[in-house]
């Protein structure tokens, strides 16, 4: 039963046996490649993946779902983008990079890469608080200097 869920790679000149790969492996490959695209803030995760990250376990496949329909591999990628980037340019770069990376690593071709922009993240300046001077009347500026 587990064999039916695995993706079988076509071994062109290899008659030694089958090469199978779990869909989770493809999700990890695509998740890492998507996270490296300029303009991508992070991938959408679930509550359990967020809790796992708090404990230091990273889930590289988060935000990616695969569907294998009639031998064709389709990927849905859910991302948060940085504010100010061109959404179509980032999405197109992501589609091309994911197809290229998966073809390079597994010899699989993606039939579709559907990019779902879940949100846009703005970077807020963080106030740096000196723990030795918690009750100061002065407030630090963006560089941490007192004003």
What is the strand tally?
A: 6
Helix and strand run: HEEHEHEEHE
Specify the overall morphology.
Answer: elongated
CATH superfamily: Cation efflux protein, cytoplasmic domain
Structural class designation: alpha+beta
Could you name the CATH topology? Alpha-Beta Plaits
The helicity comes to 25-40%
The description of the largest β-sheet is: 4 strands, mixed
Low-confidence stretches: none
| Total domain count | 1
Number of helices: 4
CA-based gyration radius = 21 Å
- What is the top-level CATH class? Alpha Beta
Structure description:
It contains four helices and six strands; from the N terminus they run H-E-E-H-E-H-E-E-H-E. The strands form two sheets. Strands 3, 4, 5 and 6 form a four-stranded mixed sheet that branches. A two-stranded antiparallel sheet has the order 1-2. It has 147 residues and is an alpha+beta fold. The chain has helices spanning 2-5, 23-35, 47-54, 87-106; strands spanning 7-9, 19-21, 40-43, 64-69, 72-82, 110-121. Helix content is 31%, strand content 27%. The mean pLDDT is 77. It has a single domain, classed as 2-Layer Sandwich (Alpha-Beta Plaits), CATH 3.30.70.1350. Helix 2 (23-35) crosses helix 4 (87-106).
């Amino acid at each position: 039963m587990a064999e039916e869920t695995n993706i079988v790679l076509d071994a062109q000149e290899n008659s030694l046996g089958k090469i199978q790969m779990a869909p989770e492996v493809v999700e990890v490959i695509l998740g890492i490649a998507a996270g490296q695209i300029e303009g991508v803030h992070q991938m959408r995760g679930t509550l359990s993946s967020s809790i796992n990250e708090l404990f230091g376990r990273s889930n590289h496949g988060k935000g990616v779902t695969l569907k294998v329909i009639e031998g064709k591999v389709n990927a849905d990628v859910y991302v948060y983008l940085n504010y100010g980037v061109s959404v179509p340019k980032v999405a197109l770069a992501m589609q091309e990079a994911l197809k290229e990376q998966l073809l390079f690593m597994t010899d699989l071709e993606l039939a579709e890469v559907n990019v779902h922009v879940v949100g846009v993240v703005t970077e807020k300046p963080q106030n740096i608080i000196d723990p030795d001077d918690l009750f100061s009347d002065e407030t630090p500026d963006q560089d941490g200097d007192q004003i």
